[in-house]
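Assess the record.
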Amino acid sequence: MKKVNFIVIDLFVFSFLAVVSEFLSIYTFEKLNASFYISLSIMIGIISIVRWGVYGIIPFVFSGIVSFIMNQQGYLTEQPMVWYYGLLYYVLGNVFLMLPLFYYSKNRDAKIETTGKFFLFIVFCFLGLAVGKGLFIFIITGEVDGLLSYLASVGLSFVISTIVLILFKTKTELLLDMRNYVKEQEMEDEYERRQKGV
């Protein structure tokens, strides 16, 4: 399979999972009138950026679009945000999940090799997301404690995501830098072509 096709299929699958997860989370939150909100799309976003770096943010951006649309329909908040504020908060704010990639872009597998290192990566991803959300809360409302408010709102999501992600990291090969995998596959394909050409 060609590299581009593999990336597109992988990101499509994770985007689908993120969109469905976010829709179900918001719908359940609204229908049950719950006092807390659990977003598994953050976990899916973290898996995706571990696998594909900057490109991996695409699924989480799509989940943000779902949040934006549902907010405009009266979910999540009693009064829907003005549409351009909604785009800032729900969509552009999600891009900040990948802030840790400024450090983790190269040699990602080595930098998250141990459970402790991977835990720090998860923490930095949530903090990066909180920075983005807090920034746009400040722009929209003028509140300066948006970062802390957002962290408090995703506390349960952080706990659940951390447990599941660490289990995935220790029990599966889902959380790998797929660029290395693609390079290995390309080298194997090239070797096979040369062997056939002999």
Observations:
- Residues 3-197 form a domain with the Arp2/3 complex 21 kDa subunit ARPC3 fold (CATH 1.10.1760.20).
- The first helix runs from residue 3 to 31.
- The chain has one domain: 3-197.
